[in-house]
Amino acid sequence: MRWGMLITFLMLVASGGPAVAECREYSTTALIEGRQQRLTGTACRQPDGTWRMMSSRPAPADHDRARAAVAAGEALPLSDVLARLRPRYPGRLLDVELYEQGGRWRYRLKLMRPDNQVQLLTVDGLSAEVLAVRGGG
Questions:
Q1: 105/91 Cα distance (integer angstroms)
Q2: CATH no. for residue 101?
Q3: What does the alpha-carbon distance between residue 31 and residue 34 come to, in Å, rounded to a whole number?
Q4: Helix (H), strand (E), coil (C) string for the chain
Q5: Residue 95 is part of which domain span?
Q6: Nearest residue to 25 via CA among 79, 104, 72
Q7: Which one, of 90, 13, 16, lies nearest residue 52 by Cα?
Q8: What count of other Cβ atoms lies within 10 Å of the Cβ of residue 135?
Q9: Residue 19 pLDDT more than 70?
Q10: CB–CB of 133/116 below 8 Å?
C-alpha cells in the first residue's frame, strides 16, 4: 500500500436491513508501510448489533477542526443529521465528509438507495437542510 492512498473497507450489503444504519465517526492509528498513520472513517451498526467499518482514510489536516466544530455546536453530529434525513432519503451510508465552505459547515453524504442507485447529498451542517441532491434517478 502507498502513502496517501485511500484505504477503503467495502461493506457487503445484506438485503432487508435498516434503511439507514446508525453510524459514527472514528479515529485510530495504523502501521502502514512501517509508518504510524492516523486514520479516520465511519463505522455503522449492523442489524446483529456489531459495528462494521465503512470507510477509512488518512486523517486530513483539518479533521481536528471538523471535530471541534461539532464539539462547539457549530455543526450537528453525523448521527443527528442521518436521523433527520432518514424519512426523505432512505439508503445505506457509503461515505461522508464534513467540510467548511463560506464560513458554514456542510456534510457531503454518499448513499446507496434501496433501488441500488447512488445518491450524493450536500447538507447544511447546522440545520441538516439538504442543499443539493445528485444522482439516484
A1: 23
A2: 3.10.450.40
A3: 6
A4: CCCCCCECCCCCCCCCCCCCCCEEEEEEEEEECCEEEEEEEEEEECCCCCEEEEEEEECCCCHHHHHHHHHCCCCCCHHHHHHHHCCCCCCEEEEEEEEEECCEEEEEEEEECCCCCEEEEEEECCCCCEEEEEECC
A5: 23-135
A6: 79
A7: 13
A8: 12
A9: no
A10: no
The count of structural domains within the chain is 1
Residue 14, in any domain of the structure? no
Q: Is residue 84 part of a domain?
A: yes
In a domain, 16, yes or no: no
Neighbours of 8 (CB within 10 A): 14
pLDDT digits 0-9 by tens, 53-70: 776 665 555 667 788 888
pLDDT band for position 1 (cuts 50, 70, 90) = very low
Whether 15 maps to a domain, the answer reads no
As a whole number of angstroms, the distance between CA 3 and CA 132 comes to 33
Cα atoms in the Cβ-side hemisphere of radius 13 Å centred on 106:
14
Q: Identify the burial level of 109 via C-beta atoms within 10 angstroms of its C-beta, where 0-12 means exposed, 13-18 middle and 19 or more buried.
A: buried
